[in-house]
Amino acid sequence: MKLTNFKIITAVLVIFNSCTPNPKDQKGTVDISKDVIMANVINHKAYDVEVCNSFLPNMGDSTLKNAYTIYYYQSDGDTLKSHSAHIGTKEKYDKCDYQWDNDSTITFRLFNEQTKKSETHTAWGKGGSAGLKTN
∠ at Cα 32 (29, 38), nearest 5°? Predict the structure, then answer.
């Protein structure tokens, strides 16, 4: 009887683990929206990513002409959380590749398909804190 219970528990754990997404398997490419969007956890699931053009105030002589907001969604216990990273740049980008490094860290590359210019950043968020690093 104990061996049968062990087999059932093992089978349940194997099924559960196969249904739980592995963050490192979560990667993709998204178009950068020309519309400003807001984070919306209702329409997303863990490891979703969306990127949009965002507002960059006039800074006079600044070389930063374009701004992007990257929203990334992650599970925090039984709650879906959104975090965001904001990038100002002189380049104009139209796509974003992303790869989740773990359950709270994402590496993304903004790029322009025509000019082949790109830049890569790593962002992380956990609870109420978030950070951004240029690679």
Answer: 110
Q: What is the pLDDT of residues 2-32, one digit of tens each?
A: 555 544 454 444 444 444 556 667 899 999 9
**Looking at the DSSP assignment, which residues form a beta bridge with residue 119?**
110
pLDDT digits (tens, 9 = 90+) for 60-116: 656 678 899 999 999 888 889 999 999 989 899 999 999 999 989 999 999 999 999
Helices (H) and strands (E) in the chain — how many of each?
Answer: 1, 8
Q: Is 128 helix (H, G, I), strand (E, B) or coil?
A: coil
Element containing residue 8 per DSSP (H, E): helix 2-19
- Side chain identity, residue 95: K
Give 127's DSSP letter.
T
Place of tokens 């006079």: 60
- Indicate the pTM of the whole model: 0.77
Question: Which residue matches tokens 């590359």?
Answer: 109
